[in-house]
Amino acid sequence: MGKIAILLKSGNYTDFMTMSMIVSGAVVSDMDVIVFAMNDSVWGLLKENCYHNTTIHSNFIDFAHTVSNSLNEGKVKPWWELMEEIKELGNVKLVVCALVAELGGFEKEDFIDLVDEIAGVAYFAGEAESADVVLTI
Asked: Which ranges of the chain have pLDDT less than 50?
């Protein structure tokens, strides 16, 4: 068993999808996962934004249309539904950056239920130091 630490800095729906797929693969590989959200991604985790942030950004319009259509037709689950299932199967923590939350005036209850806690960058640095893999999205 290993550990993967992911720094999620983008609020782009496509990046949230990427994160959830990487987390899924890590859990299937019996890895512990820590996702630390900062910058734009913090806004993407707010209850008021999360479920409406489904615009696919891509340099390739066909890709954006294909993914959007797949989501609308139920062929692909939204990232938050995939994360709900993944968190039931493995040790996954989703942590919001304390500084960004403070700047926005956000409390834990402002975020979707997938968020486990709010913590500082030093928390992530410690988790990343002991991780086998560290990724930035």
From this structure: none
